[in-house]
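Why should sequence recovery work at all? Because a backbone constrains its sequence more than one might expect. Tight turns favour small or flexible residues, buried strands favour hydrophobic ones, and helices have their own preferences. The token representation captures these environments compactly. In the example below, the structure is given first.
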């Protein structure tokens, strides 16, 4: 049946079916999440500033700058604080100087958003989350972490085992420079083995908890275990 012969009822129903399917699958097309989930997701292409070479290439290989809040929270270097609390022996607050004084970890890898866009060879630097956990001293009975953002809206979760993977860092440098405000600076989470939504921006707090508490994107349909393509779990057998 050609589209022109469809009756008005079918035409009306079509958008609702499409939305329902996206919600059900939990893997909406790029840009659809804002409409489907009702969240105010800003989705603009990164430009050359702060985006390295990717910004000079036409089309792909660029970051989309996401925020589920109205604006980008602007936090100065000196005002920045990371609170670590919950099931730890030494609850504490880290300044950016504190984080930069800890042993740093740096590496490059492809960034991969669940909606399909990727940016090759992104350089990251920060403190391994496992080092932060060891500094705070995880108590018996701890199972997972929850992460909070200065945006007051986004939240994330990782199991303790996932959090201790080597390419999971509290990042203060990205693309060879301090993490910019649009990219979640001064400090964001970077979860290398998982899709981009796990890499919460403007990281404000880490709480060690006794169960997995699904975060913002997971409550809207994305998998809690956000392993990205080619990464299906811990690769280091000592971590499993
Ligand atoms: N606070 C916050 N963190 C966030 C998001 C967000 O909307 N708010 N979006 C996530 C998603 S879906 C992706 S793909 C990456 C995108 O990182 P970028 O904005 O630096 O490109 O950030 C993740 N972290
Ligand atoms: Mo994403």
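From this structural description, the recovered sequence reads:
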């Amino acid at each position: 049946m050609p589209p022109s012969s469809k009756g008005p009822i079918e035409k009306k129903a079509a958008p609702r079916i499409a939305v329902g399917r996206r919600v059900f699958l939990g893997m909406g097309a790029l840009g659809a999440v804002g409409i489907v989930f009702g969240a105010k997701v800003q989705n603009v292409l990164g430009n050359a500033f702060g985006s390295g070479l990717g910004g000079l290439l036409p089309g792909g290989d660029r970051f989309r700058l996401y925020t589920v809040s109205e604006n980008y929270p602007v936090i100065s270097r000196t005002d920045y604080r990371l609170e670590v609390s919950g099931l730890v022996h030494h609850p504490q607050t880290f300044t950016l100087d504190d984080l930069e004084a800890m042993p740093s970890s740096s590496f490059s890898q492809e960034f991969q958003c669940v909606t399909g866009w990727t940016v090759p060879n992104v350089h990251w630097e920060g403190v391994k989350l496992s080092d932060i956990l060891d500094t705070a001293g995880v108590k018996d009975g701890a199972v997972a972490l929850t992460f909070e953002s200065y945006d007051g809206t986004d939240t994330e979760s990782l199991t303790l085992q996932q959090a201790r993977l080597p390419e999971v860092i509290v990042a203060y440098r990205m693309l060879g420079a301090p993490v910019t405000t649009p990219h979640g600076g001064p400090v964001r989470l970077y979860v290398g083995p998982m899709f981009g939504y796990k890499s919460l921006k403007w990281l404000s707090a880490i709480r060690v908890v006794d169960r997995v508490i699904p975060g913002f994107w997971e409550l809207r349909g994305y998998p809690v275990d956000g392993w990205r393509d080619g990464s299906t779990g811990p690769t280091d057998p000592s971590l499993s």
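A few observations help interpret the result. Helices lie at 8-25, 33-37, 96-101, 129-136, 160-163.
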